[in-house]
Specification:
heterodimer; A: 543 residues; alpha/beta; TIM Barrel; 2 domains; B: 144 residues; Rossmann fold; five-stranded parallel β-sheet; 5 strands; globular
Chain lengths: 543, 144
């Protein structure tokens, strides 16, 4: 039987010096902390900076998500918190929207207003830990405004806050969809990024290949896609927003998915560091070393978490965590053992964080930087995936870059082809998955795990609370800010909407209202689902 | 594995669930197995799915669910009933926990296929329960 990587490279039974023909240590690897950073950015590795160990939170009401964040802190999550939006606020509509009503607080945090963010962060510090909020691109500008508004209210120096609240728009179209148009998402993303850079705010932007891989894309494709996304985002900020590349380069971080193909995953992370360093220096003419260092966070693969025999997922997660750590990631969060069933239970979350703590403190994997450097096999794999990744990048470039590749459907097709291939390989038994098509046990013999429950009434309660609370706000202040935002939204792609979004957020305008008037200002309908109307009359936009 | 020839089925996501890969893969697999697939894609309200079921005169409705928004699925089943489509089974696939699957069956969903389900299991069930092959059987009967 031929053994291959997930992108089709044929693996030999053994590797030797001849497999690294022309290998040059300084050129290809460099010492840890030296260009091209294949071996990472710190000479001392995890001895000088441990990776950020975190778990994704967000489910039910904001108050409930706040409780979960506090529990995670007690479980040892101190370096950074990570929250994911519900599908409603991901779409920038409100919990009390007729469609939002049935799924508010389901699958994530219902972050549709500053009030929700205040409740999420109650008794939690804005400083001393990184604040990461994810879900989709559309709320990027809002999340940034929440941070700025709450810092001001609490009297916290904005310069002391760090984290990541922006998210690039391409991921919304990788094995998923978004009800907000790509052009609008992109504009708001660029506005938020530009605002952060010009005001020296320490917030990063996620450029995520995780969705691409979790939806089916292979490891080499993921590298090509990441680089194409980075090139597009940095290019737009430099060329259209007039920013300096060395300022732009400290903005993005990459979230990669790490599965169980241990050595391939390590090779992928190493290759990504090298590929970005070269792109930054050779293409964007980076002047600073820091600009060549892409932060890489790891999400262990939810796709590999099986529904059947879920305890097996602890083993998978441990292997994947070790791969992420040996690969030299900057932050890591785990898919949980119950990933194929529901949102993480307390037990599953604890096991995920414990997995990271065990790898950190008991295995010795964090003692030595890039411990597999020089392995004939791993270096050959790093070269192979890099070469294959560049091929994918070239294809995307040929179409006209990442935006064009998303618009043309090329990225989506790539995902579906791979997803189908993977499904057929498992369906036919060609690829063995323990508990699914190999060593299957009867369902009644399966170990029962605790499962997080979702109740429809909870969504209704979140929606009702929002509807009632809306009536208590100072409407005249909100309307004035929304009118300003509406007027600004018609002033062209490069007119930055952040100041007027921040002003609207501060008086508690909601996501649906803010996005609604921006949409109207751009000639779109107020509601992307065309189910509700703008609550006040606005002058038509000048054509 | 049986053939789905002559059976018309909707494959759709529901509500704000934007995850499309599962639905795409299953739609392709069903087409390969002979079904006529009406693929609605993401961001479909229960109302729109019912409308399509009537318009297209389908024999079954398949919902790919990856967002825990079960309220939308229950609303869909209720609306199909109200329109008299009691013999059009609703079948779901995706990461749906067991207790939730039980509840959905009680509320009229014909079957739930968890991740890792084989194509043979899905196809054989659909061939056995699609309206075309069941005449006037009540929907609840398929729930077992």
């Amino acid at each position: 039987m031929t053994r291959k990587t997930d992108y089709g490279y044929v693996i030999k039974p053994a590797y030797a010096p001849k497999d690294l023909d022309g290998f040059d240590y300084q050129r290809d690897l460099g010492d840890p902390g030296a260009y091209p950073f294949t071996r990472g950015y710190h000479p001392q590795g995890y001895r000088s900076r441990m990776w950020t160990q975190r778990m994704t939170a967000g489910l039910g009401s904001s108050r409930e998500a706040n409780q979960v964040l506090k529990r995670y802190r007690e479980m040892g999550q101190r370096g950074g918190m990570q929250v994911i939006h519900d599908r409603v606020s991901c779409s920038n509509i409100d919990s009390d929207h007729p469609l939002g009503r049935r799924e508010a607080g389901v699958l994530g945090w219902p972050g549709s207003s500053l009030l929700e963010f205040e409740e999420l962060m109650a008794d939690l510090p804005l400083t001393g830990q990184s604040i990461t909020i994810l879900g989709s691109c559309a709320p990027s500008a809002l999340r940034l405004a929440y941070i700025i508004a709450l810092a001001e209210k609490r009297g916290v120096d904005l310069g002391e806050i760090h984290g990541s609240v922006m998210e690039s728009p391409f991921e919304n179209y990788m094995g998923q969809t978004d009800i907000q148009p790509l052009e609008l998402n992109l504009k708001l993303f660029l506005d938020a990024c530009e605002y952060v850079i010009r005001n020296k705010i320490r917030m990063r932007a996620a450029v995520i290949s995780q969705h691409f891989q979790e939806s089916g894309g292979n490891n080499a494709q993921a590298l090509g896609v990441v680089l194409a996304m980075l090139r597009e985002v940095c290019g737009l900020l430099v060329n259209e927003r007039g920013l300096d590349f060395d300022e732009v380069a400290t903005l993005p971080y990459e979230l990669v998915s790490v599965g169980s193909r241990f050595f391939e995953e390590i090779a992928k992370i190493r290759a990504l560091r090298r590929m970005w360093a070269k792109m930054a220096r050779e293409e964007f003419k980076a002047k600073k070393e820091k600009s060549c260092q892409l932060l890489i966070a790891v999400h262990t693969s939810g796709r590999t978490m099986t529904y059947q025999q879920p305890l097996n997922n602890l083993v998978r997660s441990a292997i994947q965590t070790l791969a992420g750590v040996i690969g030299g990631c900057t932050a890591l969060d785990n898919a949980t053992l119950d990933n194929a069933h529901a949102e993480p239970s307390t037990l599953a979350a604890r096991m995920s964080l414990n997995t990271q703590h065990i790898v950190a403190h008991e295995t010795g994997a964090a003692d030595v930087v890039d411990p597999l450097a020089g392995s004939y096999f791993v270096e050959a794999l790093t070269n192979a995936i890099e070469a294959e990744g560049y091929k994918v990048l070239k294809k995307i470039e040929k179409i006209g870059g990442m935006l064009a590749a998303v618009r043309s459907g090329f990225i989506e097709e790539m995902i579906y082809e791979e997803a189908n291939r993977k499904f057929r390989a498992i369906d036919s038994g060609e690829q063995k998955i323990v508990g699914v098509n190999h060593l299957v046990i009867p369902e009644e013999d399966d170990f029962e795990i605790p499962i997080m429950e979702v109740h429809a009434e909870a969504s209704e309660a979140i929606a009702d609370r929002m509807a009632e609370w809306k009536k208590t706000r100072d409407w005249s202040a909100i309307e004035a800010r929304l009118r300003q935002l509406h007027a600004d939204a018609g002033k062209g792609e490069r007119f930055n909407l952040m100041p007027s979004i921040i002003a609207a957020v501060k008086v508690y305008a909601t996501a649906g209202e803010i996005m609604g008037v921006i949409r109207l200002g751009r000639g779109l309908s107020y509601d992307p689902l065309n189910m509700i109307e703008c609550p006040f009359a606005l002058d038509p936009v000048a054509a | 594995m049986q053939s789905g020839r002559g059976i018309k089925i909707i494959v759709s996501m529901i509500g704000l669930d934007g995850h499309t890969t599962g639905g795409e893969v299953v739609a392709r697999m069903l087409r390969d197995a002979g079904f006529e697939v009406v693929y609605l894609g993401p961001n479909q309200t229960p109302e729109r799915i019912v409308h399509a079921a009537l318009q297209e005169d389908v024999d079954a409705v398949g919902i790919s669910s990856h967002a825990s928004n079960y309220g939308q699925i229950v609303a869909l089943v209720d609306m199909l009933r109200q329109k008299g489509l009691t013999n059009v089974p609703v079948v779901c696939g995706g990461n749906i926990p067991k207790h939730q699957a039980r509840r959905l069956r009680e509320q009229g969903v014909a079957e739930i296929f968890p991740p890792g389900s084989s194509s043979a299991a899905i196809v054989d069930f659909l061939v056995g329960t699609a309206r075309k092959n069941r005449g006037g059987l009540a929907l609840a009967a398929a729930g077992g």
